[in-house]
Specification:
Blueprint lengths: L1 H9 L5 E3 L11 H11 L6 E3 L5 H10 L3 E3 L8 H9 L3 E4 L2 H6 L4 E3 L4 H13 L8 H27 L4
Parallel strand pairs: 1-2, 3-4, 4-5
Helix pairs in contact: 1-6, 3-7
């Protein structure tokens, strides 16, 4: 939230779309505290929490987004980064080794630096918007990828079934 306070002070904070659960067993009150802090700094209207949504909607959101923002301090492997890459969505990522490995062409910021994130968000806002496909086109591509994957997996199983040890 401290990252966004600096951006909010400049009056250029874009809408931030959040999805997923609002509880985390490691810190059950984190989401509530984060939203209270946003309200206290008059940033609450910039956040839109959609809750748990269907996967196709997640893909559509990532595909239609100007940027995917992932401010993580650690990742095992980020599915959202892979999804954004596959959809051509530019990314603002914390500068951690995994993000550098996954998406070397992204804009990076130090994960503990509000100033670095503020600078990157402003920089991203100055760049021309990419021409993007419609949500229905993105959803259609996702369906095709699922069908192609299912067909490839089925072919693999059928091939394995025909092989004797």
């Amino acid at each position: 939230m401290k990252h966004l306070e600096q951006i909010g002070a400049l009056g250029s904070l874009p809408p931030i779309i959040l999805t997923g659960r609002t509880t985390d067993p490691r810190d059950p009150t984190l989401f509530k505290r984060m939203m209270e802090l946003a309200e206290a700094h008059r940033l609450g209207s910039h956040f839109r929490h959609l809750g748990l949504i269907p996967y196709d909607d997640v893909v559509a959101l990532i595909g239609a987004a100007d940027y995917l923002l992932n401010p993580s301090h650690f990742e095992g492997w980020s599915t959202t980064v892979e999804e954004a890459k596959s959809l051509g969505t530019p990314m603002l990522l914390s500068d951690i080794p995994l993000h550098r490995e996954q998406a070397p062409g992204s804009l990076f910021f130090a994960p503990d630096s509000a100033e670095a994130l503020a600078q990157r968000l402003l920089e991203a806002g100055q760049r021309p918007r990419l021409a993007r496909d419609s949500v229905s086109v993105l959803q259609g591509r996702q369906q095709m990828r699922r069908r192609d994957y299912a067909a490839a997996l089925l072919a693999l199983f059928e091939n394995a079934r025909g092989v004797t040890p």
